Amino acid sequence: MLVTAMGGPAAAAPSPTPTRLDPNVRQSPGLMFVKYYVVGTDSDGRPELLWHIAARLLGDGERYRELLDLSQGRSQPDDGRLSSPNLVRSGWVLLLPWDATGDGVRYGVPPVAALSRPGTAARTPSPPPIDRTQDRCGARSSWAGPDLSWAQLRLAPDSAWARSRGRGVSVAVLDSGVDASAPALSGRVLAGFDVAGNGRRGDQDCQGHGTALAAIIAARPSSGRGLVGIAPEANILPIRLNTRGGTANPAEIVEGLRRASADGAKVVVIGVPADLTDARIQDAVRLATLHDAVVVTPAPPSGSPGAKSPVGVLQVGAAGADDQPVGEHPPGSVDVLAPGVRVLSLGLGSKGFVEGTGADFAVPFVAGLVAVLRASEPGLSAPAAANRIMRTADRRDDGPDLRQGWGLIDPGAALGVDSRSETGRQQGQLQNGSGSSLAPVLVAALCTLALLPWIGRRSRRPPVWLRTMLSGRR
């Protein structure tokens, strides 16, 4: 479901018009969500220095200038203002660039005063609507937008990029097509297919919805823009449906799934609601999963037939900036949640942006994470990949819920970066758990067996490889 800014139906009052804010301050419904840091003290009890904070959280002390630029002149909790890198007080709030990571980095709503800076809230035009008509192309977007959605900040996909960025994985997008001319997607949108019979190619998009979803999956960062996809090195296979009114003919969905299966896509996105109780769609989904593809689709809307997801399928619900589900779905039909409220993405054209709300805008975040995971672990099967995404979501310790499934997806945990994930737990066992007590015993036993032929033979020395291992040299 889309908010009115995207041209689709809305279940609630329209959100406020986006405002022009600092590039690292993101707006979500009624609140400002940012990455921020509260200044502490060093070992001598003095306030931390900006360059020490930059070196620790940004990996480069010279980036203290960014911290200064972001927070300079803003009111602080004690009514002071940052004006110099040498004049920082304990308890002050520093706004952080999106790529900040480390101990003390917080995400959410900082003290309200820390966001106040005169002259930074000039209003900008509303984002353009997505054209849902069948026969004519929508206007190309020119809305500047705020560069980076709160959703990317919340999920922090960069935590997983040390392992993978989705390279080599093909993601099929069954929707209105994908605009291959968008620079952020240049060179990674395949020709695709048009199963709607309109005589257009899959890599053309007249409505904008498919392009918006593809950008959330795979947009690469461009100069001066912070928008980046969850899997910025994945490829997009566009399969064009007639998505008039935000729906599609089941026969076209079936044909699209078959084309995606035949083309070897490892992830298949259905950008419109699909009835998984329909026998034809069930068969096509089963074919896709048998071809080792994970199928990702919006959870069905309330009042429609709800179905438990087949193996290898993820039904996605939307979450707001407070991590709580929005929208209603049949109980038990949601597998995971992803950001789906006022999500920023690319519009038609080379520079414009659009915003969207609904489960359809949550789907590409999950699909992008699947692509990153499967690129990191090529041997992982589709059912295992879908299961990993669910079991590493934020309800991993509490199990699934009838309304939100396994909860909000966690890219770092899915790729084993977070120790709370299954992979992290296994690694922790090897380092600190039961596995740690067994490994030294096995090594000692093997070394003893290898030394037996030399025991009592002082005239002979152990072989070089054994001496090297025993001495700890590599």
CATH superfamily of the largest domain: Peptidase S8/S53 domain
End-to-end C-alpha gap? 58 Å
Overall average pLDDT:
78
Query: Overall 3D geometry?
Result: globular
Percent range for β-strand residues? 5-15%
Oligomer: single chain
For this structure, the CATH topology of the largest domain is Rossmann fold
Helical content stands at 25-40%
Q: How many structural units, i.e. domains?
A: 3
CATH class of the largest domain: Alpha Beta
Spans with pLDDT under 50 lasting ≥5 residues? 1-31, 119-124, 419-449, 454-462, 464-474
Q: Can you characterise this structure?
A:
The protein is an alpha/beta fold. The chain folds into 3 domains: about 25-115, no CATH class; about 150-415, Peptidase S8/S53 domain (Rossmann fold, 3-Layer(aba) Sandwich), CATH 3.40.50.200; about 435-470, no CATH class. Helices cover about 25% and strands about 15% of the residues. The protein has helices at about 50-60, 65-70, 150-155, 210-220, 250-260, 280-290, 360-375, 380-390, 410-415, 420-430, 435-450, 465-470, and strands at about 25-30, 30-40, 95, 105-110, 170-175, 195, 235-240, 265-270, 295-300, 315-320, 325, 335-340, 345, 355. The strands form 3 sheets. Strands 5, 6, 7, 8, 9, 10, 11 and 12 form an 8-stranded mixed beta sheet that branches. Helix 1 (about 50-60) crosses helix 2 and helix 4 (about 210-220) runs parallel beside helix 7 (about 360-375). The protein is globular and about 70 Å long.
